[in-house]
Design a protein that fits this description.
Helix Hairpins; about 50% helix; globular; alpha/beta
Amino acid sequence: MSQNNSESTLIVITGPTGSGKTSLSLSVAKKLNCHILSADSRQLYRDIPIGTAAPTIEELQEAPHHFVGTLGLEDYYSAAQYESDALNLLGQLWQENRYALMCGGSMMYVDAVCRGIDELPTISAAIREKAMAIYEEGGLSLLQKTLQRLDPEYYGIVDKNNHKRLVHAIEIIMEAGVPYSSLRTGEVKQRDFRIVKVAINYEREQLFDRINRRVDKMIAEGLEEEARRVYHLRHLNSLNTVGYKEMFAYFDGTMDYETAIARIAKNTRVYAKKQLTWLKKDPTIHFLNPSTAFEELMALI
């Protein structure tokens, strides 16, 4: 935790999907009269608020928010861009308030601001299309073979079933002309502000129950209708995510309705498990009791 400047404090509320991050962030933001920076790689996009569990219009009015609904579905964005944009914004916000709050479960975005990420080339549209064409042509198998050939070192440690990671690595290799592994330093950048990082610590059974109920709520709020509105854009990376993939399969006739809903809940729970694994590797996180989370967080700052 960097504490070079105790006057400027970034409160980071992270954790798995469905753990109550939004509610806690609103309570803290109102108490401290500070802004909220979303650290959710899907809430950045317009037109899909239900499936991404974006803050509601009412919640957005409770505190100033940033990085919510700011991109079109076709827009490209990366953790490196988020790091730059968020740090620039924080510099402005701290001129008015010593506190700012970041809320979200996209761990690469959280790490980008708190730890920094390696300098990587900006990916051109042509390279993005070329890398995605590999996936469209041969699926996960061809992505794996391509990355193994281009960068066997990174292939040895990457999640080989995560097509987004594989595509991203291939993009960087194609753009930079060198193996991705040669660009990964893993060095932590020192920040000139204090970071207080927390996560709400639900028991796994409770968390999964919350996730199941959240999926039911999304369906009731109109997830199917939202997915139908963007179905013609299903090839876009912004829609290659839990909720939409299953709905698109239902629309395509490859999955029945009940199976699609059950699969959304299951895949969301799988995603939450990955988030929990990431969190456990971070010794700077304070885990909060769900019933006293607000009081515990305020005591930390």
